[in-house]
Amino acid sequence: MATVLVGGCAGIAVDSKDAGHGSDTYPDASWDAGTDADADADGDSDADSDADADGDMDTDTDTDSDSDSDTDTDTDSDSDSDSGTGVDTDTSSQCHIGGTWYANGQPTTGCQYCDVGTSKTAWTNRSTEYACGTTACGGDSCSGDTTFYDYPDTCQNHCSGTGADCVTCTCTAMPTSCKAAGCCAAKCESASGCSTAAGTCAADTCTSSTLTFGQTCTGCGANGATGACSASTSVDCGSANVNTVQACGGRNYTCVDHSYWVWDWWPYTGHTVYAYSWD
Fold it and tell me: pTM to 2 decimals?
């Protein structure tokens, strides 16, 4: 009989002959661990499995609940970032109004603008001296022949000073007095303004012996001009002017010899009628 060690402990002494094996080495390769022996050496003849090899014959499932899914998203939004408007990202010199960044002093048109010295989040109103457009004016005009009203083509609009409103201007005309002196007469035309025209000089003087006529006014044209009458022409009735017809004072006179020389005028009605009329 031989003594065999199994699982590190003293086993049972068996007769090698009784075991049916030709060797006293026990167990041999033909031994069935599940039926013939205590495979796990715990004395209960079952197959225990120490899956985690920690000696407690249980299966530990070490699940690390901390999968460290560190998905920190850096959402640090730098307020200095470019908003897409092409404005410099230095917010110290910008206003943020209505979701848009504006550089200091912008926009340069309109009655409100960004003034970082006043507010970085609201518009600043421009003063009433700020020009914000123009308004077309009407045409020029005259008041008789005495005054010409010269309107500009446009007038300048200005900001209200209290908001975004641009106040429409009122067109104001530049008045000009139409003047004349001497024999000139004042005139006014809306297209050209004030001017002067030739007026009336001394009336013709028509007597039976002498006709004085032909004065004309010269030197007129510009506003305020002083005209002068030219020298008159005087014609005596005599043998040198017999039957001469001459206009004087709006009538036609004829130099006639009636045993004396006289300037006569008469209407022609089919026969000659002498109607003497002397001034």
Answer: 0.49
